[in-house]
Amino acid sequence: MKSICLYFQVHQPYRLSTYRFFDIGSKDNYFDDYANRYIMQQVAEKSYLPANEVILSLIKRFGSDFKVSYSISGMALEQFEKYAPKVIKSFQKLAETGSVEFLAETYAHSLASLNNKQEFKEQVKMQVNKVKELFGQKPVTFRNTELVYSNDIGDMVYDLGFRTMLTEGAKHVLGWKSPNLLYCSASNPKLKLLLKNFQLSDDIAFRFSERNWSEWPLTAEKFVDWLGKINERDEVVNLFMDYETFGEHQWAETGIFDFLKAFPEHAIKTAGFKFKTPSELAGELQPVSQLNVPYPISWADEERDLTAWLGNEMQDEAFGKLYELTTKIKRLKDDDLIRKWRYLQTSDHFYYMCTKWFSDGDVHKYFNPYSSPYDAFINYMNVLSDLYIRVEKATESNKITRKKSKAAVK
After folding, report:
1. In order of start, what are the domains of the chain with their CATH numbers?
2. Helices (H) and strands (E) in the chain, counts
3. I need a labelling partner for 175 at 20 to 30 A (CA). Which of 28, 158, 294, 386 fits?
């Protein structure tokens, strides 16, 4: 019997305030509390709460035949607690069913895996602890920010104790192979890999309401018919997408919630599929082949690489300057400065600086609160400049304090 792995990413960044050049050195409230509260509460009402209600009803209806998995960034969890506690409670109800697996990721939804191994490990541990605290589960499956994966990242993930990881079924990596099978890392065969079927996932996440799409309207019956036509040797269809697909990216008026309600019934009763969690699949299936990924891949854009976040001069400059602070800021052991620094690591900030206005340009503009990527860069660098000043001042203050302490001892 073939399986479906239905996985949702839940994430909201801490959005930056408008931060001008003349604010540097005088203003340390970097984040727009009003915008963050307003957007979180709006998305909660439009997406998270109604989607969780649908998922809960499906679990009650189909029992063990229907299961889902989530990774919820630490940034989103913090904002749920501050601005939309009902969402936390609704996820806790899902956790209580035993039919939901919560995955680990980086707490700040960061790209630390590409730059700083120690910071990456710290954020993963923070995330694991937060999930345990809120949902009573210790994550055993890992999902890196934006599904970013390479052999080296897989090794780091394995060293942290995970044996299963999700990533993208990128064509340039798979070649002729199918994404609908379990694989393992080429550098560490003990790490199992589940690959996103991006064609079928994106049919829901991006094309569902596109009236110019030749397959519009997409119904549950049509979608399950496509699933039934996969190769008979395939074992699992991995449908990975943002949870905001339901109600936010695809509004309720498009019929997206009706699709979500109807899809499991047709998949289970008509086509004989079972919904499984990543850890279940890793326990049941055997890897069919090793997957060699020497350079990082992601789930973004046609290239499935890092160019949505890193690649142009602005992104590289901001990313490099951010992580230059690592040693100094960690030495300070100032929780407030470290917290702000981690909020600035969130991948969204670099996504806003993307200058790709061709095949994927409309997608980038849709998710960008700035009028241009250049505005995003300037605003971010102004904030980062202020953080540099505060770190330097705190470092000098610590040096003076230590000197005075030594002098007093003498």
Report:
1. 3-291 (3.20.110.20), 313-405 (no CATH)
2. 17, 10
3. 158
Written as six digits, the tokens of 136 are: 């009573």
pTM comes to: 0.94
Q: How far apart are the first and last CA of the chain?
A: 77
Report the Cα 161 to chain-centroid distance in Å: 20
Mean pLDDT of 225-237: 95
Angle (CA) 291-296-299 rounded to 5° is 90
The closest alpha carbon to 370, from 386, 353, 356, belongs to 353
Cross-strand partners of 194: 166, 182
pLDDT of residue 362: 53
Q: 112-121: list long-range contacts, CB under 8 Å, 24+ apart.
A: 112/345, 113/144, 113/145, 113/148, 113/153, 113/156, 114/148, 114/153, 114/296, 114/306, 114/310, 115/319, 115/323, 116/323, 116/326, 117/156, 119/323, 119/326, 119/345, 120/156, 121/156, 121/160
The residues assigned a catalytic role are: 146
Q: How confident is the model at residue 360 (pLDDT cuts 50, 70, 90)?
A: very low
